[in-house]
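fyi for ur records
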Amino acid sequence: MIAFGGVIGAGLFVGSSAAIAGAGPGVLLTFAFTGALVVTVMRMLGEMLLARPGLGSFVDYIRAGCGDAAGFVSGWLYWGFWVVTVGSEAIAGAILLQDWIGLPVWLMATALVASVALINQTAVGVFGEFEFWLSLIKIACIVVFSVLGASYLFGLLGGHPAPVATLLGHGGFLPHGMGALLAVLPTVLFSMVGSEIATVAAAESHDAPRNLSRVTRTIGTRITLFYVVSVSLILCIKPWSDIHPGQSPFVLAMDVMGVPGAAFAIRLVVLSAVLSCLNSAMFVTARTLRGLALRGEAPRTLGSLSSAGAPQAAVLACSVFGLLAAFSSILAPGTVFAFLLGATGAVMLFIYLLIVVAHLRMRERAGSRWGYSAIPLFPAVNYAAIVAIASVTITMLADPAQRPTVLASLGSALAAFLAYHFYFAAQRGRR
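which gave:
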C-alpha cells in the first residue's frame, strides 16, 4: 500500500490526460514499456535484497554495488527529489481544498505539511495505518472504475458502446506517429516512479527480508496493470481526441457512462492521492536523511530516533525544507521553484540507472556465489534497461521543453559528486 501511495497519484487521475492527448491510443504502448522498465528495476532490486539481505534500503545497495560516492550522490538526489515533492504536493492539496475551505493557499499548505509531519513523528505503525487507508481509496476507485467500464463496454449499463470505433476511429492507433510515443515517455515514466519507497518502509517491518522480497516481486506488475487497464478502458469509452491536458480522463469516461457525481468523486480521490503522496514523500525523505546522517554524510543529530522509533529530527528538517519549496512556488514560481523542479526533475532516471548498474556489478563480482537469481537473461536484461533509461534521457534532451530539466538534474548530480569529494577530502585532511 505504501508503494501504491507513492506511485498512484494525481499523475494517473489527471496528468495522464496530457499523455493521452499527445500520443492517442498508442500511449498504451508507452505505459506498457514504462511499466516493464519499472518491473525490471524492481526485480533487480529484489534480487539484490534476497542475495545480500540486511544491507538496508535501495540506497545501501547502490552503495554496495557502485561505491560510497554513488551512495552519497543517490541518497542526496533522492532526498532532494522527494523534499521538492513535499512542497509541490502540499500546494496541490491546498489548491484542491480552497473550494471547500476559504483560507490562503500558503496557510493550508503549511497545515498539510504540519499534519503529515505529526503523523511521521509517531510510531511507524501509525504512518502505515494512515497510508493504508489513503491508498485504499485510490485502489478502490480504480477497481470500481474498471468494473463500471467493463460493464459499460459489455452493454450492461445501457447506451450503445463501440469500443473498437472509439479506440481506433479517430486517426488510428498511432495518430501522431511513433515519435509521439517518445515525446510522452518522460511524462508517463515520472507518473509511475515511487515503487522503491516500499523498500524503505519494508526495511522497518517485522519480517524485513520476506516483506522486501514480496514487495519487489509484485508491486511493479500490479502498478503496471492498474495503469494499463484503467487507461485502456478510458480510451475505449471516450475518444482520445476529446481528452485535453488538465482534464481528468476518469471524469470524462464516467460522464459518458452516466455515473452521477463523477467530478466530485474524482476530486475527492485526487485529494486523497495528493495527501497519500505527501505522506509517503515525508516518510521517505526523513528515512533517507537519517540514513545519510548515520553514515556521517549529513549532520549527526538528524540520525536520532524518538522513543517510538521515529526519526523526529529528520522529519522536522524535511518539513522545514518542504515548506520552503512550497513557499517558493507561491513567491517565486518562475525562478526559485522552477529551478528546484528542474534540478530534481530527472534524478529518478539516474537513481534507476544506478540500481541497474549496482545489480550488474554485485552479481558479476559474486559469480557462482550469488545466492539468488530471479532475473532471466542476465546480463543482457541489465544492458537493455540501461539502453531504455538512456533512451528516455536522450528523448528529454531532444525536446526543448524538457532539455533544461535534464541539464539541471545533471548539474545537481555533479554538485553532489563534488560535495562528496570535497567533504571527505576535508575529513581526511583533519585526520
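The chain has 18 helices and no strands. thats all i got for now
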